[in-house]
Structures are given as structure tokens and as C-alpha cells.
Write a structure and sequence with these properties.
Elements (H helix, E strand, L loop, with lengths): L8 H9 L6 H13 L3 H10 L3 H11 L7 H34 L5 E3 L1 H9 L11 E3 L5 H6 L4 H4 L3
Antiparallel strand pairs: 1-2
Helix pairs in contact: 1-2, 1-3, 1-4
Protein name: Nucleotidyltransferase family protein
Pfam families: NTP_transf_5
InterPro entries: NTP_transf_5
């Protein structure tokens, strides 16, 4: 593993837990950092900034299930997880509507980023924040979409 130098313990923990898979060496490093103690509010601030709060915490629980955080942060985590899960459910339902509408017009659409990764890699809808739906379409189909009577489907915000 590469060495993480000149970072705070909270920054190191963020780097180590912001991933889907990890090596045994990563797990040992996470345990070492947790045993030394960290500032949970600083860690929370970093994970919020990088939109990885629920993913990082899930990984921490998987590596060291007996880690305790304040009841306040624990409640925030539960609410964040639930909110992200529900938002992602809405986005993924909307993605199905967009793909269906595009298919009716014979326009191929390729979901990318969160729209594709949540089901394929993350599996759990509450650990990957998704702020929008990203899809690739052919440049030549843009005018066709603009002319379509149901084009509101393609630009609507949730």
C-alpha cells in the first residue's frame, strides 16, 4: 500500500474508508487509526464535504463493529442513510422513465457514474450519494430530443 504522509488521522481514515473494497493491510491501518482515537466531528465534516459519509461509516462498521460514536452523530448517520437511499430510489425510478421514453424514440442512452454504479458496484442504495442522473446520448440525437413532445422528461429536476 502507498504511504499516507502528512495527513491528519481523520484524513487518513477518510482515504482508507472511501472505497468499496479494501485489502487486509487497509483494514489493519483503519483499526490502528481507530484505536488511537479520532475527532469524529472532524471526520464527519470531511466525509460530508466529499459526499462519502455513509460509505465511510459502513466500511468502519465492517472493519471494527464495536466502534462507538456519539448518539447525535449516530442519529445523523441513520437519517443520512435513509435520505440518500430514498433520493437514490427516486433518481433510479426517474432514470427508468427517461430510458423508456428514449427507447420509444429509438434513442440509445447509457447511464454513467452513480446512475450505473449504484446497482452494479455499491449494491446498497444508501451508501453512495447521487445528486443527479448522468447519461450519455449520441450528439446527433440532441435535436430529436429537443423536438420530442415529452422532452420535459429529460430535463426535469427531482
Amino acid at each position: 500500500m502507498y504511504k499516507i504522509h502528512n495527513f491528519t488521522k481523520e484524513q487518513k481514515l477518510l482515504i482508507l474508508t472511501s472505497r468499496i473494497t479494501m485489502s487486509e493491510e487497509n483494514r489493519l491501518e483503519i483499526c490502528k487509526i481507530l484505536d488511537e482515537g479520532i475527532n469524529w466531528f472532524e471526520f464527519y465534516k470531511l466525509t460530508l464535504y466529499h459526499k462519502t459519509f455513509t460509505l465511510c461509516w459502513k466500511n468502519i462498521e465492517n472493519v471494527k463493529a464495536d466502534v462507538k460514536i456519539s448518539k447525535y452523530l449516530s442519529n445523523i448517520l441513520k437519517f443520512s442513510y435513509s435520505g440518500i437511499k430514498e433520493q437514490n430510489r427516486l433518481f433510479l425510478n426517474e432514470l427508468e422513465n427517461v430510458i423508456e421514453a428514449l427507447n420509444e424514440d429509438c434513442i440509445p442512452c447509457l447511464p454513467v457514474k452513480g446512475a450505473m454504479l449504484i446497482n452494479k458496484m455499491y449494491k446498497e442504495h444508501g451508501i453512495r450519494y447521487m445528486g443527479d442522473i448522468d447519461c450519455l446520448i449520441r450528439y446527433s440525437d440532441i435535436e430529436k430530443i429537443k423536438k420530442n413532445e415529452t422532452s420535459w422528461v429529460y430535463t426535469r429536476n427531482i
